[in-house]
Design brief:
- By secondary structure, this protein is α+β, with helices and mostly antiparallel strands.
- The chain folds into two domains: 49 residues, no CATH class; 83 residues, Outer membrane lipoprotein wza domain like (Outer membrane lipoprotein wza fold like), CATH 3.10.560.10.
- 26% of the residues lie in helices and 20% in strands.
- The chain has a five-stranded mixed sheet.
- A hairpin with a 6-residue loop joins β1 and β2.
- The longest helix has 24 residues.
């Protein structure tokens, strides 16, 4: 420890006496809640940052993808749907679900996003590696395509007659 022990009260020194270790809540530090934890990094220091835990949103949403769970922060289905840009135009919110794996066993949690949004049912707390699935409403999409085709045909007929 050429530069000395990490200057934090909860820093621990390894049995060999050559290294010290401390954990820092990065989010709290960045938000200015724990400025005393902002230690100077010295030569030969090693900074380890764990892999972010994520939840996934798939299907008919604005931006499907992986969303990081902030350090020790709770995230619910409605929050992650909002982060994903909301429901898509052709979504089937009543048939959504959370896919959760626990000890290798898959569990599907049925969701009615309409009820969640209306406050008629409790929001679901997400865990790392959960997948929120919002399926497409095939009949709504087919109806819109049929309407578009009818409008194009009518427009073409009107143009042709003139």
């Amino acid at each position: 420890m050429q530069w000395g022990q990490i200057p934090l009260a909860d820093a621990t020194v390894a049995a060999d006496g050559n290294t010290s270790k401390a954990s820092i809540n990065l989010k709290g530090l960045l938000e200015g809640r724990n400025p005393e934890r902002n230690v100077v990094i010295m030569p030969d220091d090693v900074v380890s940052v764990p892999k972010a835990e994520v939840v996934y949103v798939l299907g008919e949403v604005g931006k499907p993808g992986a969303y990081a769970l902030n350090e020790k922060e709770d995230l619910t289905v409605l929050q992650v749907i909002a982060m994903a840009g909301g429901l898509g135009q052709f979504s089937a919110p009543g048939d959504s679900k959370v896919i959760r794996k626990t000890n290798g066993t898959r569990t599907d949690i049925s969701l009615n996003l309409r009820h969640l949004i209306a406050g008629k049912s409790a929001d679901v707390q997400l865990r790392p590696e959960d997948v929120v699935w919002v399926p497409k409403n095939v009949s709504k999409r087919a109806a819109l395509r049929t309407l578009e085709a009818a409008l194009q045909t009518a427009t073409g007929f009107i143009i042709y007659r003139h």
